[in-house]
Amino acid sequence: MRHDDNAPGTDNYPSRREAGFSERRATDDEISLYDLWDVLVRRLPVLIGVGALVTLAGLAYALMQPSEYQYRSGLDLPRAYDPDKGLNVVVSRQSAIAALEDVVIPEQRERLFSDEDRGPRVEVRERGAEHSLVLQSSSTPERAERVARLHEAVIESLSERIEGGDYERHLSALIRPYENRRTMLEEQIDVLASELASLNNRLDGADGVGSLVVAQQSGDIRRELAELRSRRVDADSAIESIRATSHGTEQRFLASESETPSGPGRTLIMALTVVLAGMLGLFSAFLWEFVCNARRSRTST
User: Fold this and answer.
1) What is the C-alpha separation between 59 and 52, in angstroms, rounded?
2) Which of 97, 136, 185, 242 could bridge 123 with an S-S bond, Cβ 3.0-4.6 Å?
3) pLDDT single digits (tens) 245-283
4) Burial of 77 (0-12, 13-18, 19+ CB in 10 A)
C-alpha cells in the first residue's frame, strides 16, 4: 500500500497558519458577553430613557382605562307542575339560549339603543339547575343603568315569547284531563241527584216493604254521591295545584354587580408595560450602538 506524504497529519501537510487561514476568522461569529456588557454600559442612558418613556405611556394608559364590572341578571325558565311527575321544564335551556342569542337580544338592543352603539353586549350562560340562566354584561358603574334596562327588556321579551306559546299549551295539556274529569263527575252527580230526589218523592208515598227498599236505594245513591263529590274535589285541587305551582319566566335578580373589576386590571397593564419597557430599552440600546458604529465606519472610509 502506497503511503501519501501529503495526507493530513503528516509532516508535509501544511498547518492552518501556513495555509494562510486566519485564527481571527474562526472567532468572527462568536458573541462576547463582555462586548454586550460594554454596549449596555455605554448606552445605558438610551436604555433608561426609552424604558422610562414606555413606562410613563403605560401608566397613563392604565390610569385612563375605566374600571369595568360584570353585571349579571338571573332568570328561571317556565316550569309546569304535573301532579304525578312534579315540576317539568317547558322549554329546554338550549332552545332558550338560541332564542335569546339569535332573536331576543338583537331585537332589544336595536330597540333600546338604535341611535347609539347598540348598547352593551349580553352573554347568556347556564346557571345551577336545568331551568336557570344568567345574562351577563360588562360595563362601567356610570352606565350600569343601561345594562339593567337591557336585561329587564330581554327577560320580559323572552317571557312573552314563551308564555304566549309553549307554556300555555303545556299548561292547558296538563289541566285539560282534570277539567274533563270534573265535567264528567258533575254530570254523574247531577244524574244521581235527580234519582235521589225521585226516590225521596216515592218514599213519601211508600209504606211497609216498599219504603224499606226505597230507603236502601237512597242510601246507596247518597254514598255514591259522596264519593263522586270527593273525586270532584280532588280534580279541583289538582287543577289549583297545577295553576299555583306552575310558573312562567321569572326574574331572580337584576344587574347584580361583581365584587371586583373584570378584564385586564391596572396591575396587569403595568406589569406588561414594565416587561415591554425593558425589551424596547434593550433593543433601542443595541440599535443606537449599531447606528453609531455604522456612521463611524462610513466616516473612516
Assistant:
1) 10
2) 136
3) 888 889 999 999 988 877 666 778 888 999 999 999 999
4) buried
